[in-house]
Specification:
heterodimer, A: alpha+beta, outer membrane lipoprotein receptor (LolB), chain A, eleven-stranded antiparallel beta sheet, 6 helices, 28% helix, B: alpha+beta, Multidrug efflux transporter AcrB transmembrane fold, five-stranded antiparallel beta sheet, four-stranded antiparallel beta sheet, 15 strands
Chain lengths: 205, 777
């Protein structure tokens, strides 16, 4: 995803943030996005909504305690608003992980598995963290997560803490970094210390 | 009472007592076996078994509508909990997570006997490497965080493989933790009754229990039930309600009519004696011969002996002036010939090779004979001495005067015959409906609800099924496993989309043993693992649990159906295994391939070809149609033979083909006209229409016989009695034509107009004494 530096806007934002910090009794900007519709969070959501179709390359590294070395896959990420998201793995193997509505389809060669996500609510919620972010759907995000927004429009971070117990048991935090309407990195931290980190680059629109 | 009266009365009472004894001790059954031929094919027996005790026959589909998803889910959980405590149900499924967790636990614990991938080769270093690598790959999917914990104990992914195979049919969607329609606006459950599909009383109690348990589960919620048990109970209730309502109304009208004529309530009551005697003797005779009595026999049989109602009317009115002795001399021979005619006609039902039709034959023959004998020997004794009847002779004379001249009458009758025949020929001989569904009293709205619930549950009506038989459960399971291997090739070829097998849930002991034997011992497995994981990010030391689990599985006792208890896999297994008197059968329902978004028919020839002799494959819908169609066909053939028999009897009895024709023509014309009218109205003819036509012939031939013998100027009372009897028949069956239940409506629509036409044609074709004809001329 392209990163555009906007120094003046950044400066203005810093001033604004400082003012807000003075006004707000809370030390952080927690939950600001939902409370203040004109804030950066709302602007980011608007910017995200401006891209209903996305295509980007990604590299994902998984660090699992049970494995000696991290797993790394690279591929393409395709998104079509509102609820179609596909991870197309290119290396080390060709594979497609497609989420369309409530169906998760994993295709590996001729082998295909379909999972009805309504039967696996925690998996559905985990997917929703990324899908709702791409859709710029603040309401959907705050339904399933405690949303913590930081940064500014040019460079922002969403920290999503799962609300449903079933997901919270496994996943401690989902951290999404982005710049304006582009996602840069998605990190999932599990409660047992395992984590996966997906780097997104070269988003072509 | 003198001795001459004592003997018939004693005989009559003895007959009633004997028949009553048999009737009380008989077993009454209401299922498809009524339509089975004496030597049913395997497919036909299977069909009857499935309808009686197949998986669908005990499944009640439950939907909860209204309020919001949270409230529906709460209601679903409360309803399921209450029903699970009720002994009327063997299982209640609603997709709740505790049941799913129990299932997963069971799969995990028994993965090395349940997984079809378990062979000796599965545990070589090369295979282990591939399997473990694939399991690790799986971690990159969104399900990764949940699959991860299984990795050290199930590195070859057996749990996923088993779940994949079982889940391939796709279960219902889950909303708020319970089964739901895909759109999420309706919670769904399946309750399985303990009582079998043929136990309508038991199923009725189960439905009441569900409705009671649903009360108080939440405001604004609506319960909807469907499935074969619901249909069976509703159908019986509807028929009972209709029959009760119509017979009360019809009975009141007929009693009023008879009261006007007889002017004696006692006579009205006594008039029921012949038909009641006939009904009881008929049941007793069937029970004595067969032991069991089909519901169909009762229903059709009572209709067929409907002419017995007329006997009492003839007796009372015709013997009005002359007394009993005069009636015996003058009219009894006519009634006797009429009864013999009907008996002769029904006798052709006996040798059809269908026990159901034979029962009908025995019922109607014994019933009619008993009714006729009661009229002849009992009624004269018990009838009131001073019966002051209304004089119906003027009515009879008036009717007689309205009979047109012979040339006009015969032209009229002939033109009816020609028009009806032409209509039938143009309509290709009256279309017979061979679809069993035509007899179904299930309303279209209920069928739509059922279809929508089935779609929501992903539980399509099973149409094609593979059946493996065995002397015992293990043999049947082994048969299912042999079929399994063959059917997999068809899934690959796209002939079928998939199938379910009881051996998926509980493999035969032989297969379990083979799988256990192919598991390597701990040192071998450890050595293989070391080589397999050399290039993988998973160290073999982390897989110690796996080695221990495999070692434990090698020595585990065989899995039995008792181990499945309490899991939904146990429910699925029990439903696919049927116990029969001569062994067990395993059912393997096939799923049709989806072509262009809809289910395409399965090519059963290809299924049978791959199965060889290992198992049979059936199209249940086609078999059901063939079964009914065969029954209907036999009944039609028997009716045609009966017609020939009647013609011969009349020829002999009347000693003249002309006179025989005069008696035969009116009922046949009536039947022809009715058939043509039904055909013009677009009605497809069913077995009920046929039964109705048989009754038209039975009643109509009596009319014709009377008109043929007693149509003189002094026979006003005789013709009047026919008119009264006809009015009673038309009233009784005319009301049935208004019934909402198709089977009753078909019967009423045939008999009411048919009886009237038979009466009118009898009058038209009647031979009049020359004096009368001259008076007209």
């Amino acid at each position: 995803m392209t990163r555009k530096r906007a120094p003046f806007a950044l400066l203005a934002l810093l001033v604004l943030l400082a003012l807000l910090a003075l006004l707000a009794p809370a030390p952080s900007l927690r939950a600001l996005g939902v409370a203040a519709p004109d804030g950066d969070f709302a602007r980011i959501m608007r910017l995200l909504r401006e891209h209903p179709h996305r295509r980007a390359r990604f590299t994902e590294r998984q660090h699992l305690a049970v494995l000696d070395r991290p797993l790394e896959v690279t591929g393409e990420l395709l998104y079509d608003a509102p609820d179609r998201l596909e991870e197309r793995l290119l290396r080390p193997r060709r594979e497609s992980v497609l989420v369309d509505g409530d169906r998760l389809t994993v295709t590996r060669g001729k082998h295909r598995r379909v999972l009805d996500l309504t039967r696996y609510p925690p998996i559905a919620t985990l997917i929703e963290s990324i899908r709702a972010t791409l859709a710029g759907d603040a309401a959907a995000l705050s339904r399933s997560f405690t949303v913590d927004f930081s940064g500014d429009v040019a460079r922002w971070t969403l920290r999503l803490t799962p609300r449903p117990a079933a997901l919270a048991r496994r996943v401690a935090l989902i951290r999404i970094d982005g710049a304006r309407g582009a996602l840069l990195r998605v990190e999932i931290r599990e409660t047992d210390g395992d984590r996966s980190s997906m780097r997104i680059e070269d988003e072509a629109r | 009472m003198n001795r001459r009266n004592t003997v018939p009365l004693a005989l009559w009472l003895a007959a009633l007592a004997v028949a009553g004894c048999f009737a009380v001790r008989a077993r009454y059954v209401a299922d498809l076996s009524a339509l089975l031929p004496a030597q049913p094919t395997r497919a036909q027996r299977l069909l009857a078994d499935l309808l009686r005790s197949g998986p669908a026959s005990t499944s009640i589909l439950i939907a909860i509508d209204g309020a919001d998803g949270e409230a529906r889910a709460r209601a679903s959980r409360a309803l399921a909990a209450r029903l699970r405590r009720d002994g009327a149900f063997t299982a209640v499924l609603n997709g709740d997570p505790t049941a799913a967790a129990r299932d997963r636990r069971f799969i995990f614990d028994h993965r090395y006997v349940l997984s079809d991938a378990i062979t000796a080769a599965h545990f070589t270093a090369a295979h282990l490497h591939t399997a473990i690598e694939r399991t690790i790959d799986e971690l990159a999917t969104p399900a990764g965080p949940w699959l991860k914990s299984l990795l050290p104990r199930d590195p070859t992914g057996e749990v996923e493989r088993i779940a994949d195979r079982w889940g391939s049919g796709g279960g219902p969607a889950i909303r708020h933790g319970v089964w739901s329609s895909p759109t999420g606006d309706r919670a769904l459950l399946i309750a399985i009754t303990r009582s079998s599909g043929s136990d309508t009383d038991g199923q009725s109690r189960a439905l009441v229990a569900i409705r009671r348990a649903f009360r108080g589960t939440g405001a604004g919620l609506r319960l909807r039930l469907s499935g074969p048990p619901v249909f069976a109970v509703a159908a019986r209730a509807r028929i009972e309600r209709s029959v009760l309502r119509l017979s009360v109304l019809g009975g009141a009208l007929i009693v009023a009519l008879l009261l006007v004529v007889y002017r004696s309530p006692v006579a009205v009551l006594l008039g029921l004696l012949p038909v009641l005697t006939g009904a009881l003797v008929g049941v007793g005779a069937v029970a004595a011969v067969f032991g069991t009595v089909q519901g169909v026999t009762l229903g059709f049989g009572v209709t067929l002996i409907g002419e017995a109602v007329d006997y009492a009317i003839y007796f009372f009115i015709q013997s009005g002036d002359g007394g009993g002795a005069g009636w015996r001399q003058r009219f009894w021979p006519t009634v006797r010939l009429g009864a013999l005619t009907s008996i002769c006609g029904f006798a052709t039902l006996l040798p059809t090779g269908f026990p159901g039709l034979a029962q009908l034959g025995i019922y109607s023959i014994s019933g009619l004979a008993a009714a006729a004998l009661t009229t002849r020997f009992v009624l004269p004794i018990v009838a009131p001495r001073q019966l002051r009847l209304r004089d119906v002779a003027p009515l009879g004379r008036a009717l007689r005067r309205r009979i047109p001249r012979r040339i006009i009458a015969h032209t009229l009758a002939a033109s009816f015959a020609i028009v009806s025949l032409a209509t039938l020929v143009l309509a290709h001989g009256g279309a017979w409906n061979h679809d069993l569904a035509a007899l179904s009293p299930v309303s279209a709205a209920d069928q739509r609800l059922d279809a929508s619930l089935r779609a929501d549950l992903g539980a399509a009506d099973v149409r094609d099924i593979v059946v493996a038989r065995g002397a015992d459960r293990q043999a049947a399971l082994r048969g299912a496993e042999r079929a399994d291997a063959a059917l997999r090739t068809l899934v690959g070829a796209g002939v079928i989309a998939g199938f379910e097998s009881p051996a998926d849930y509980l493999p035969s002991r032989a297969v379990q043993r083979a799988r256990r034997r192919s598991l390597p011992d701990a040192p071998t497995l450890a050595a293989n693992l070391r080589r397999a994981t050399a290039q993988l990010p998973l160290r073999d030391q982390r897989l110690a649990h796996f080695v221990a689990d495999v070692e434990a599985a090698r020595h585990a006792p065989a899995l039995t159906s008792a181990d499945l208890a309490g899991t939904s896999l146990g429910v699925a297994f029990d439903r696919l295994m049927l116990r029969r008197s001569d062994g067990w059968i395993a059912l393997l329902p096939l799923r049709a391939p989806i072509v262009g978004g809809r289910a395409a028919p399965i090519d059963l020839r290809r299924v049978r070809a791959v199965l060889g002799g290992a198992a049979d494959a059936f199209d249940l819908k086609a078999e059901a149609e063939a079964l009914y169609s065969g029954y209907l066909h036999k009944a039609l053939r028997a009716s045609a033979a009966g017609f020939v028999a009647i013609a011969l009897l009349l020829w002999v009895a009347l000693r003249s083909p002309r006179r025989a024709l005069r008696v035969l023509a009116p009922p046949m014309l009536a039947v022809l006209t009715i058939a043509a009218a039904l055909s013009l109205a677009g009605e497809k003819l069913t077995i009920l229409h046929l039964v109705g036509m048989l009754l038209i012939v039975a009643i109509g031939s009596n009319y014709a016989l009377f008109f043929e013998r007693h149509c003189g100027p002094d026979d006003g009372a005789t013709i009047g009695s026919l008119a009264v009897a006809n009015a009673a028949t038309v009233i009784g069956f005319g009301l049935l034509a208004l019934a909402g239940v198709p089977v009753l409506r078909d019967l009423g629509m045939t008999v009411a107009p048919g009886a009237l036409l038979a009466f009118l044609f009898s009058a038209l074709i009647a031979r009049r004494e020359p004096r009368m004809a001259a008076a007209h001329g």
